[in-house]
């Protein structure tokens, strides 16, 4: 069994660019206010979800390991 991630979108940062939806359409949607949200906040580790987080122009998406809360993205410095 692989890692599980908790996915969050900071709606105060989200500008509705939809980059997350374009990269991981099974994981993100824009609501009527053009704000992103994860379809399921807890997911199996997924390269497309990581790519969506890495390519968010305002870094509104955070991924943490579900069990430990350790940062997946953005990485802790």
Question: If you had to describe this structure to a student in words, what would you say it looks like?
Answer:
- The protein has 77 residues and is an alpha+beta fold.
- Helix content is 18%, strand content 30%.
- It is built from two helices and six strands, in the order E-H-E-E-E-H-E-E.
- Strands 4-1-5-6 form a four-stranded antiparallel beta sheet, with helices on one face. The protein has a two-stranded antiparallel sheet with strand order 2-3.
- A hairpin with a 5-residue loop joins strand 5 and strand 6.
- The protein is globular and about 35 Å long.
- The protein starts with a strand and ends with a strand.
Task: Detail the topology: elements first, then pairings.
Blueprint: E1 4-9, H1 19-23, E2 28-30, E3 36-38, E4 42-44, H2 47-55, E5 61-65, E6 71-73
Antiparallel strand pairs: 1-4, 1-5, 2-3, 5-6
Keywords:
77 residues, 4-stranded antiparallel sheet
Question: Nutshell version of this structure?
Answer:
With 77 residues, this protein is α+β, with helices and mostly antiparallel strands. The chain has helices at 19-23, 47-55, and strands at residues 4-9, 28-30, 36-38, 42-44, 61-65, 71-73. A 4-stranded antiparallel sheet has the order 4-1-5-6, covered by helices on one side.
Structural class of the helix and strand makeup? alpha+beta
Distance between the termini: 27 Å
| Radius of gyration using CA atoms only | 12 Å
Principal-axes shape call: globular
Strand order of the biggest β-sheet: 4-1-5-6
Number of helices: 2
Strand content: 25-35%
- As a percent range, the share of helical residues equals 10-25%
Low-confidence stretches: none
């Amino acid at each position: 069994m692989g890692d599980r991630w908790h996915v969050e979108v900071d709606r105060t940062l989200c500008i509705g660019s939809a980059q997350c939806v374009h990269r991981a359409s099974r994981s993100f949607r824009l609501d009527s206010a053009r704000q992103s949200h994860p379809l399921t906040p807890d997911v199996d580790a997924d390269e497309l979800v990581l790519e969506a987080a890495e390519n968010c122009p305002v870094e509104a998406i955070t991924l943490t390991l579900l069990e430990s809360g350790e940062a997946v993205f953005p990485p802790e410095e």
